[in-house]
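Input chain follows. Return structure tokens only.
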Amino acid sequence: MIVEICSAMNNRSQQNPFFAGVKSYLMLCLVVLALSCNQVIAQVKFSISAPSSVPVNQAFQLNVTLENANGSNPRLGAMPDFQVVGGPSSSTNMQWINGNVTQSVTYSYVLKPKQEGTFKIGKASITVNGVNMESNELTVAVGKAVAQQQQQQRAYDPFDPFGQQQQQQQQEPQVTEGDLAKQLKDAVIFKLEINRGSVYEGEMLTATYKLYISPNIGLSISKMDKIPAFEGFWSQEVEMDPKRQPTVVNFNGKQYKEVDLFKYNLYPQRSGSVKVPSAEVGVVAQVQVRSRSRNFFDDFFNGGRVQQVPLDLKTDGGLVSVKALPENGKPADFSGAVGKFNFETSISTKEGKTDDPITYTVKISGTGNLKLIEAPKVKMPQAFEVYDPKTKENVSNGAAGLTGSKQYDYLLIPRQPGEYKVDSHVFSYFDPTAGKYVTINSPEYALKITGAPSKNMNTGAQAGVSKQDISMMGQDIRYIKTTSPVFTKSNGPFFGSVGFVSAYSAPVLLFLLLIGLRRRNETMAADVVGTKRRRATKLAKKRLSVAEKHLRTNDKKAFYDEVSRATWGYLGDKLNIDMAGLSKDNVEEKLQARNVNPETIAKLKALINTCEMALYAPVSDEHTEMKKNYDTAMNLIADLEDEIKA
């Protein structure tokens, strides 16, 4: 199209000189626009690669690579003439070269040809930001079987007919990777930096794992091990910008390019000297090595050769001095909140009728260990029935730590008319900046309830009587009969009676029933996905029954392990996802595709996060918290069963 526009402008410019200037300007704009479009399109690449020819008796590797984007659910294309014998194995690669940052994820599969010939490997696909991307196609020529891999013959050099140059290179001592690794000791440095050496228990500190790279060295990440468990800390990883640029800094008196690999916000859970663990990373340094040959022209024009040097880097651990929270002035209601918070309460109405619901809202907002704050205990008049609160959480993790709010909505049901007062409630937290406790009081609320006394008297006034204890008396007692039963004798013939017909037709009906059951079992065996979905709820409840046993024995670790297994197992069976492929992201994507309520998805994610951090998060009443999470898991499975559409 650009060529057509330029051709038209060329014709006009020959007719009118005015169009000659317009032509030059327009052509410049079109070229800039084309280059800009090409640059944008080139930012994200998805491709597959493999050898162009292979023997029929040898396996080869197929690489599926996504560059400069985060993708999910990679899928191979059609390849009926090849067998997948291994994979996928994934590797992440990040490069900082000349100030440019690129990253890629490669999924590797091992394929084996089935027969000789020329065959196609279809387009692979992957989901990127909700959009399906497709790769290129490949053509692979499968040749005859070989006994062993043939060695590559040396090429004949017409300028070195007697092989003197090759002989000289063989006699020349080579620079080994070990020698280069020693030389690069101070050129690539992996370091742990902790922003604070002394904090209070529950106060946030930040641990950053950084790379310092010499300016004349290119670097790529070959492997990045998981950070060890932060024992003694509750940790939250800070999401890093995948396109972050290195910054030039002075470190140890030298100039380096500084890159933050990963960062964690840590909240110490005990006092004393607590260790921040070390980390390991594998990198490949790209260094220019000058040849030791005497060929001046080769060194002059090529500047030597670039050699890849693998390096295994490890940081030292760090120690943090954690001060215990002061006992002097600690409020009686203090439950472990550390940071700076606001405390607000509100009530939906101040006048109501018996049996009409009223919502009492408690909202805690600010910065600090928000996720570790539990629902406050509220005191209500005895004439009110109080239900467990519904939690709404809006918390984000950034450079400043956890910020946002947690809201608790308590449902109140008045059962008796009258005028009542909702007392003031207290929230206390420790401010580490000021080094003191802060207490906030909520206002009191006057309530006026009208109407007749409720017949559903499930209030705190009935001490010792729970909702489960209330039942209909007299239905579970069989009274003694005082009269004799009356028996009658039938004088009719047995032949043709109901009993006679039932006795003769029972075998036929039983045979038909067995045939129906067999067909049903065969249908269910063929429908693997449907069978997994039908048994999902049954297996989840079976696992939760095991969790209930651990709840009674107060075995916290075993309890949360069973709850987590029940939740993930249910999701895997219900959504037909292999356990190896289960993750929060693809589960959320599948649930949204089945029109599951966003609140249900949020509750599910909150339950999964609770199970993950249960071993490190302190709770004031462990059994109460475990019981609450058990009920949440049961209710979630019931809600998902109703909302998930097949």
